[in-house]
Write a structure and sequence with these properties.
disordered N terminus; 164 residues; 5-stranded antiparallel β-sheet
């Protein structure tokens, strides 16, 4: 009888510990709507970044054909939490965001955008682009735009913003 009671107590204790253990956040869905797409001019890449705005810290990403001026990307199974979105249109289809050297800086020469529309008037930061993705999921909008690298005044203004 005591062995049966001991086993019952052990089973109850195990059940109580499992009930008290922290549960992992459920997976969420994120829809990213990208506007400003040049139709038929090369695929659009959307990356979900978890620490910084570079390829190594964007563990989730997808290319999609530029079939319309606005594209929707759906990512399922995303861990709820802090994320940022980086996007660009790969006009020459080489798989990377091309840049052009202007003095000491490398400025994007293809259309690009970030969540919260950061990076238009100063260098983009993860903190500026970051948002909280709840377990219920969400939607983020990103607008692609191209720096006017052939406009000397616009380039000078971009350089001044970079050096601040």
């Amino acid at each position: 009888m005591t062995l049966r009671i001991a086993l019952l107590c052990a089973a109850l204790l195990a059940a109580a510990l499992l009930a008290a253990a922290p549960t992992h956040a459920s997976a969420a869905s994120l829809v990213v709507r990208v506007s400003g797409v040049a139709v038929g001019q090369g695929p659009v890449f959307v990356g979900l970044c978890d620490r910084a705005l570079d390829r190594e810290t964007c563990p989730i990403g997808e290319f999609k054909r530029a079939s319309g001026s606005t594209l929707s990307f759906r990512f399922d199974g995303v861990r709820p939490g802090r994320w940022a979105v980086a996007a660009y249109q790969d006009l020459n289809r080489n798989g990377v965001l091309d840049t052009q050297p202007i003095l000491l800086w490398q400025l994007p020469s293809e259309p690009y955008g970030f969540s919260n529309d950061v990076g238009r008037f100063s260098p983009p930061t993860f903190d500026g682009a970051a948002f909280e993705l709840p377990a219920s999921g969400g939607t983020v909008s990103v607008r692609l735009a191209r720096l006017p690298l052939d406009d000397e005044d616009a380039v000078q203004q971009a350089i001044e913003r970079q050096s601040r």
